[in-house]
Fold:
Amino acid sequence: MSGARATLAVVLMTKNEEARLADCLDRVAGWADEIVIIDDLSFDKTADVANRYGAKVFPYASNNDHFQQWNRGIDHATADWVLHIDADEWVTPALKEAIDRILVDDGGHSAFQVMRRNVFLGRAMRYGGWYHPHLILFKRDRSRCVGEGIHVRLKVDGTIGRLGADILHFPFTSVAQFLTRQNVYTSVEARVMLKERGRLPQREVIYQAAIRPYKLFWKFYGKLQGRRDGWQGFVFSVLFAYTHFLLWAKYWEAANATDG
Structure:
């Protein structure tokens, strides 16, 4: 496509995002051609906030099947391109400019990765694996989400380009919030892992739960230079190593529960 501007839908999945949604939508309202929200039956004022911005809100229970919510967003959108973001993400002016150029000339690509800059405990992270490409901009009729549970990926019919511009991500406001959310995610992931991989040898479970967390810490903190992000880099490295332990502890628990 070259010359005429294609249309853009910003698509979000929400669940009780009253507190954060306005900051997100402030940055895309009046720029995107449509805003589509797939809401996981929020019981706060998420829908009221969305309506103030002219968003189209569709309520669906997710049951922690994120791929279904992604595809519902794609299905309810009508624009040529979709930018799939979360309520805790901010589209930067630089990213808007980069996307505006794509809407005029996509270079033949069906999707684009953008750079996701995570802000963790007040610091925009540059190291430790938390500054990375993120595939969230795609042609609506060339892309579908596949996977199970919370682990999903975008399947794209065509080539994928990359934009150098950042989207800002504010995933956790505190260590307590991180732990609460990961407690939910690891429970879902452990069940999916048991379903897909069955009973694994005990030696592998022990290795993953007892040894690999240490290796992951040094990967994040050392090899990926998380230490250069100061105290936040250290905390990040510890928490994600702990999350790996928690996942495998829950997998062990679920696998042994089948014995009863």
